[in-house]
Design brief:
alpha+beta
Length: 414
Amino acid sequence: MTEAKEATQAPISFADPSVQRCPFASYDSLRDEAPVYHDPLTGNYVLTRYDDVRKALLNVRALRNRTGINSTRTDPDANRIFEERGWLPLDTLVSNDPPEHRIYRTLVDKVFTPRRVAALEPRIGEIIEELIDGFIDAEGEVDFLAVFAVRLPMFVIAEQLGVPRAHMDRFKLWSDVSVESVSPVLTPARESEIAMLLTDMQRYLAAEIERVRAVPNDTLISHLANTETGGRLLDMRELLSIIHQLLVAGNETTTTTLASGMKMLIEQPGLAETIHADPARVVPFVEEVLRTLAPIQALFRRVAEDIEIAGVAIPAGAMVEVRYGAANRDPRQYPQPGTIDLDRGNAASHLAFGAGPHLCIGNQLARGELRLAFQALTRRLANFRAARGEDSYHWMTSYIAHGPDQLWMLFDRR
């Protein structure tokens, strides 16, 4: 076994904001020179090859999801805020491991069935048409994020959770800080700020849980609160953890992929015309956008026992980053990986939603929203173009997420 390699050029760190905004050149360098890379700032071991990432996701014995990132914080003040104002976060789904993980996953699988997701499609279609109606007559440029990409998944998940659209802004804020909260480079002050915001969310959701337990209805939050798993109903802390994760999974990845996909349609006008002429072609388009611009670029695993990956020794207790965004552009798996290829036979093998027992619960809902959205957008609109040249796009700065958070565009009605 060998030590994790260092890059031959200036040290790369995924804590660097410039790398976060555009990580792909760093991935290419590390994939060839240091596929198991010891990040000098975070101390994490970074995996960038497809085979290594996929094997790591499937190795639930040695690489554990219970990393400590999603539950207790490193800052004791943040933990105290959770304990005094709300509930200390709990490992249930994304941050849990078998066999406990299965208890919670079974409950969500009971409630969030493929049949239920398929039954949502007509309503999703109505929301899409309503949103397009809201900006189709705009004079001049629009920010696609503000008028469409943020709103669609937020409206869908809000209806499923049974909360009013009028509260969308606060749910978007809670979702954004939830993604930020897993960064390994947060300051203690920021951890406390996030804890304050997330306990506001907990108290809001707790009131909703109490309401639907008293008077059940057909919302997702009611089904979760009133369905037994393992012979019991979940307690408040467990429910808050699961609903919090569904909130984030139900909107963050879809918003970002909608924006990334629109950027692709702007830069390659032929794609929009192809989908307009043959709406079924939207399916490989969605997979290729997810592959090339994975909305979640990385998640974490804690090493439970000394392990070797690609000949590199990684000690127990270390943190491993599984870099989905790098794996999805590995030329060993995908020739010409940066190119959108609607005829790519293995596009759906990408890891944007993970793999194994922690495959994203909301992946079918996200795929459905994306498919219906791009079909409607290309059916009703044409000639997508950047309104401000390169300044049309502003890229988020995030340790794990990637995509535009502003996209100024022009279009024509069909």
